[in-house]
Design goal:
The protein is 50% helix and 16% strand. The protein is an alpha/beta fold. The chain has a 5-stranded parallel beta sheet. Helix 1 packs across helix 9 and helix 6 crosses helix 7. The protein is globular. The mean pLDDT is 95. It binds BIS(adenosine)-5'-tetraphosphate. The site of BIS(adenosine)-5'-tetraphosphate has 30 residues, from helix 1, helix 2, helix 3, helix 6 and helix 9.
């Protein structure tokens, strides 16, 4: 991919339980946006395959999946979506949820992504832990299974993921209070995206 053909992208950024997936799914239903979540892609892998098993080893411990593997899987997924006409790179903006998750991934993706905005979802850690515990009961996710795994994920977020915020220019980062109701958070994100989308479409 040449530098001129980078994917137009909005990053959904925040700690585990901050609402990235929740908001991303809704935003992806709006015409002109395409939601892509590395967490969802990983969870959809076949556990019988070598790749699926390797990914599971990391996710179930609350660790990050290695960078090269993460980016390869994501790129293959995106190409597949383009091939079956689910994603139209010329016209759609990607709502990217869970990627990049460390500075190295951000650097690797520099030639692939044209980051228009970084939506930083911020909430109190206790609140996010409470949400993950509730989700664990409903969805049976391995990465929410125990308090120990959840706590590891917050450590990883602080040490590896949070520095990504400094990688992008300050004016691109918008902070949103993610402790509000889902609709209120959505409404604030939409407020950021509307002018951006209109500019992209030439309105
Ligand atoms: P993810 O799938 O990204 O998991 P997450 O951080 O917990 O966020 P998610 O988006 O699912 O949850 P949300 O806050 O929306 O990652 C899973 C694992 O995959 C990682 O730990 C890692 O191992 C691996 N991984 C992913 N990307 C990677 C990468 N790039 N590199 C390496 N490894 C990678 O929702 C949480 C709960 O809160 C839900 O139950 C929801 O209903 C609730 N909620 C959301 N918003 C709310 C609100 N406003 N009010 C009340 N409840 C709310």
């Amino acid at each position: 991919m040449t530098h001129q053909h980078r994917y137009k992208t909005i990053l959904l950024f925040g700690a585990p339980g901050s609402g990235k997936g929740t908001q991303g799914k809704i935003l992806g239903a709006i015409p002109g946006f395409f939601h892509s979540s590395t967490g969802d892609i990983f969870r959809s892998l076949d556990l019988q395959s070598p790749t699926g098993r390797t990914v599971w080893e990391f996710v179930s411990k609350g660790k990050l999946v290695p960078d090269g593997l993460t980016i390869n899987i994501w790129k293959q997924y995106l190409q597949g979506m383009e091939l079956i006409n689910q994603f139209h790179s010329e016209t759609e903006i990607i709502v990217l949820d869970g990627l990049p998750r460390n500075v190295e991934q951000a650097k690797i993706l520099e030639d692939t992504l044209d980051v228009l905005k970084v939506i930083h979802l911020v909430a109190d850690q206790a609140k996010m832990v409470e949400r993950l515990r509730r989700r664990a009961l409903k969805e049976n996710r391995v990465d929410d299974a125990t308090d120990q795994v959840i706590s590891r994920r917050f450590d990883v977020y602080q040490k590896e993921t949070k520095p990504v915020l400094e990688y992008y220019p300050e004016e691109k980062v918008v902070t949103i209070d993610a402790a509000q109701s889902q609709m209120r958070v959505l409404s604030e994100i939409i407020g950021v995206l509307v002018p951006l989308k209109e500019m992209h479409d030439g309105h």
